[in-house]
Amino acid sequence: MQISQAELDVMNVLWATPSLGAQEVFEALENQKDWNIRTVKTLLSRLVEKGAIATTPEGRRFLYRPVLKQKDYRAQVTTQFIDKVFSGKAAPLVAQLADAGDLTQEDINDLEKLLGELKK
Amino acid sequence: MQISQAELDVMNVLWATPSLGAQEVFEALENQKDWNIRTVKTLLSRLVEKGAIATTPEGRRFLYRPVLKQKDYRAQVTTQFIDKVFSGKAAPLVAQLADAGDLTQEDINDLEKLLGELKK
DNA sequence: TGCTATTGACCACACTTGTAGTCCATGGAT
DNA sequence: ATCCATGGACTACAAGTGTGGTCAATAGCA
Question: Where are chain A's structural domains?
C-alpha cells in the first residue's frame, strides 16, 4: 500500500517518537505544518487502515505506534524510486547525487569503504 | 508540476527516442504495460498540458518530443525524494542502497569508476 | 466515390489525496 | 447533576490520477 506525502509526515513523527496520541502528533507537526488537528486525525486513520500504524487504547484515547519500520519503508521506496526514475540502476543515482553536489566528502569515503566490503 | 507514475512511463519512452507519434509510443510500451492506446493518448495530452513535452504536426498526426530534460527531472525528483524519505541527507540513502543489496555487480563497477573520478 | 481505420479533442468515472466539517460519547470542571 | 472540551467515527469535496469511451475529421483502400 502506498503512503502519501502527508501521511509520510505523520509517519516521520511516529518513527521519531513511537507512541503518541493524536494531539501529540499534531503538536509535533505544528511548527512545520499548518494543519488542523482533524487533518492529522484523518491521516492517522488512513495510516491505520493501511496497516502502517496500530493503536493501543489508553484511557479515553488511542496511542498510535508504527508497525511499518522506517528501515523497511526506506528500502521499499528506494527500490521503487530507482526503478521508476533510474531504470533500476543505482549507479546513475549516485552519479546524480555526486553531480548535484549532494555528496559530502564523508559520504564519498563511506562509499569507498562500502565498495571495498562488497567486493570481498 | 508533478509528473505522475504513468506519465513517467511515457516520458521514459520519449527520453529514449525523442520524437514519436502516439501510436509509436503505444507500441514502445506494449510489452510492459497493458494499456489501451487511448490511455497513452490521454497521458500524452496531460504531459503536453503540463509542459513536459511538446508536439510538432507531421501530416495528419503529432510527433511528441520531450521539453523537460531527463537530467533536470532526475535532479529535481532526487532532491525531493531525499528530502521526503531521508530528511534531506544523502548519506543514509547510499547506506540504504548498500544495505539492501540493491547494487548489482555492474553498479559496483560503475560506482568504483565514479569514485575514482570524484577523488581526483 | 463511399467506407473504414486512425487521429486528436473532449468526456467519463472511480479511487486517492489534501484538507477539513459534523456527530456522538464521555471525562472533567463547576 | 450539567455542560463543555476532547476523542474517535463518519462524511465531504475538489484536484489529481489511472483507465478508457465517444466524436468528428480525414487519409487511404476497395
Answer: 5-66, 70-119
- For residue A92, give the nearest of B114, B90, B8, B11 by alpha carbon: B114
Per-residue pLDDT of chain A (120 residues; tens, 9 = 90+): 899 999 999 999 999 999 999 999 999 999 999 999 999 999 999 999 999 999 999 988 999 999 999 999 999 999 999 999 999 888 899 888 888 887 888 878 877 887 777 666
Asked if the C-beta of B104 comes within 8 angstroms of chain A's C-beta atoms, the answer is yes
Phi first, then psi: what are they for A18, rounded to 5°?
Answer: -75, 10
Q: Which fold has domain A5-66?
A: Arc Repressor Mutant, subunit A (1.10.10)
CATH number of A70-119: 1.10.4040
- Identify the residues numbered 65 to 84 in chain A whose C-beta atom is closer than 7 Å to any atom of strand C: none
